[in-house]
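Example record for the data management plan.
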Amino acid sequence: MTQLMTIERFILQQQARFPDATGTLTNLLYDIALAAKLIASEIRRFGLGDIVGAAGTENVHGERQQKLDVFADEVIVRMNDHTGRLAAMASEEHEEIIEVAPRYGSGKYVLLYDPLDGSSNIDVNVSVGTIFSVHRRITSGPVGTLQDLLQPGRSLAVAGYVIYGSSTMLVYSTGTGVHGFTLDLSLGEFLLSHPNMRFPEKPLYYSANHGHEKHWTPGVRRYVKELQGLHGTGKPPLSHRYTGSLVADFHRNLLRGGVFVYPGEVGGGDKPNGKLRLTYEGQAVAFIAEQAGGRASDGSATCSTFSHTRSINARRVSSATRSWSIKRKSLSPNTTMNGVDNTCHIASVRHSLARDNPTAFRRSADRPPPRIPEMI
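Corresponding structural encoding:
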């Protein structure tokens, strides 16, 4: 019989490697896992209760909120606002910081999350997900501040996502690999199903919204043609898969190999800086991609190096003017991508973004620095 490993046992085993660990981050991960179970349970009731359709409101980004959006957001807030583990939270559904009452103690961490990514797909039964990331607090005082939340992705203590589909799966990393857990409904437990997840050597898919192609820069168009096998070095074409749910598209590409790209739009497009929010989506997914052997770039640098100093809701990742090829083992020049492209591209092994600047990534810097998780 195959050994069963619950997420609780797995996290405790990881914590045991660090004698000085207090268990605070461990318990925070438990809280997120429990919130995921509650959200998954409500999603499974789709169509049976008053949870279907729009809530009649818009979030801070002007997007139509779904009832499950609101439910998922409330679950995560209520699960974490009184534990003493967090100093502050930030959600894609809120314009301002979600403060944690000082009476519960000043926590050592701050949480950023998108409660229900891809929620516009809820009514058509397409997979949706929750994206989360955790920073260690860097300020002092009774409550967390914007400075704690706007740290670069390389400072993350943990990042992960939950995908709600044919099964519910939680994927996370503390900086020493990526691990996936599938929810066993009969036990009510997340069980380790995908240890040490890595992008496959050979990619199969690319994910891009071709409905906005007329607003892409010439360089991005040329690059996508290369992915299709129509331009460049004559590599075999990748198949196109795109659902409009970042978690679903990224998860597929992580398991099967591929590239996710949401380019900035020029020439009349309404998303000049792309669609991904750095704090809630871009950093977390980029962190996981790098830990799984892939790369994430806005065309000028890796997404894990970026931070915003003004807004937790910013889409802009960088003022990039070039994009490059990012490969697992070699960084040889490839097709040039000229033009502005302000977004995070999440790339798998062996396929990604063409580059034209040989000094952009040196061999000594083509991998993220080793990380030692502090399970405290």
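Summary line stored alongside the record: The chain has a mean pLDDT of 79.
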